[in-house]
Amino acid sequence: MDGSKPTVATVSGPTSFCRAAAETVLGDPSSIKLRLKVSIGPVPDASSLAFTLGLGLDFAFSPLLKLQRTPYGGRSLFAAQAIPAGTLLHVCAAPHAHVVYRAFRKEVCARCFAYATQAQKRVQAGFGAGAPYFCGEACRDAWIVVAQIEQILADEAPEEHEEQLGITKNGTRPEMAKEQLDRAWGRVEAWTKAKYGRSGPPLPFALDEGELDIARFAVSAIVRRHQEADPPFAEPELAISRLLSLQDSELANVRMRPYLLRAHLRVCAFLGAALPPPLRAHVGVVRQLLARETGNAFGIWEGDQLPEGRISIGDSEKEAEDTRDMREREMFGWGVWVSASLFNHSCAPNVRKKRSGRSLEFFTLRDVKEGEELRISYASTDKPVGERREALRTSWFFDCMCSRCVRESS
């Protein structure tokens, strides 16, 4: 690869022009691969991935940890030896997919999540008023492909085709079966393939602000999937197989929150129309990602120290369940860090997490015995047992039977 810098086209204006501009920048598969090669950075050393688990996947874990099946189902991380308090257990280097809320795009770097005040220098992607900002040129250049596509998503799209797509505003019924979900997604995928081909008419409809955040979140995973098709420049730790190893909560989620199915189908149809052909081929990632988002997403918070607890992503406002005082913190967005999701929950956790740039770091809160399960808290731990269990049941779809819940409920 030569050292020349690829030309960056300006993407702005009406939807039809945006698509044409996107086709110019990203339409040729070799062109987008060149950009992705420039953006990815160094490939992880193969030796860092040599720790192969007997559970179908290989993750890079410290010798302090072992991943194994639990008596109550699923997988979890356990201490392979006695571990003192304050020990760094695991670092998940980057999210598989993430998004910074639109309201924070001028303050938070779209790639590394560094916060910048108005007085601090920021770098914009340079192709439109709604384009994201970055802490510097390195982050901008590494994220330029996603940023360009995000700008396309922000344009208006006047046509409405929800009836043709079979997307109803009534949502789903509590008794909805997986087969019905499959048919709904199948209609959307077939419609976009038939109608748009390699270059289509104006986009099917405009997304609202919450749907745009979901679409931008999905685009980061779609670009990641495209990178994976180019092995010398792919990132093994961010492979789609890792994402697919997470629990699929799609059916439980749409039964609990019927309005989400409509939003997710609209996002898929929109991206099927808006993306340039090299990325449109991976639009199936949208369903795969959103089916695993609930229960596996972490909030991106102001400051390096993350509050304890994952987030519930069932509502458009992204409800945050937290063990710390949130009045002094803001949540900038959310992301899925795959290996981080292997930590199970306890209302009396022995592990805490801390964000450092794009990475999530996990430390022991106390001395841990060999063979002890390593757990973080997903939700607020300062509430009564009934409220804690209800929050976990509605957002993570399990009944908490941790030692604290059992003790407090007996």
Summarize it.
The protein has 14 helices and twelve strands. With about 400 residues, the chain is α+β, with helices and mostly antiparallel strands.
Description:
One of its GO terms (cellular component) is nucleus. Residues 63-379 form the SET domain. A hairpin with a 5-residue loop joins strand 1 and strand 2 (75-79). This protein has two domains: 15-40 and 97-293, no CATH class; 61-94 and 306-409, Beta-clip-like. The chain contains 14 helices and twelve strands. It is an alpha+beta fold and 410 residues long. The N and C termini lie far apart (65 Å). A three-stranded antiparallel beta sheet has the order 3-11-10, with no helix packed on it. A three-stranded antiparallel beta sheet has the order 4-8-7. A two-stranded antiparallel sheet has the order 1-2.
Give keywords.
three-stranded antiparallel β-sheet; 14 helices; Beta-clip-like; single chain; 35% helix; 410 residues; disordered N terminus; globular; alpha+beta
Structural classification: alpha+beta
Please give the order of strands in the largest beta sheet: 3-11-10
Classify the helix fraction into a percent range: 25-40%
Q: Tell me the total number of β-strands.
A: 12
Distance between the termini: 65 Å
How does the overall form come out from the CA principal axes?
Answer: globular
Domain module tally:
2
Rg estimate, integer Å: 21 Å
SS summary, helix count: 14
Indicate the low-confidence ranges by residue numbers.
1-56, 305-327
Strand content: 5-15%
SSE layout and pairing:
Layout: H1 15-26, H2 29-40, E1 65-69, E2 75-79, E3 88-92, E4 97-100, E5 123-124, E6 133-134, H3 137-142, H4 144-153, H5 162-165, H6 178-196, H7 209-228, H8 240-244, H9 250-256, H10 259-274, H11 277-280, H12 285-293, E7 298-301, E8 331-336, E9 344-345, E10 351-356, E11 359-364, E12 375-376, H13 385-396, H14 403-409
Parallel strand pairs: 9-12
Antiparallel strand pairs: 1-2, 3-11, 4-8, 5-6, 7-8, 10-11
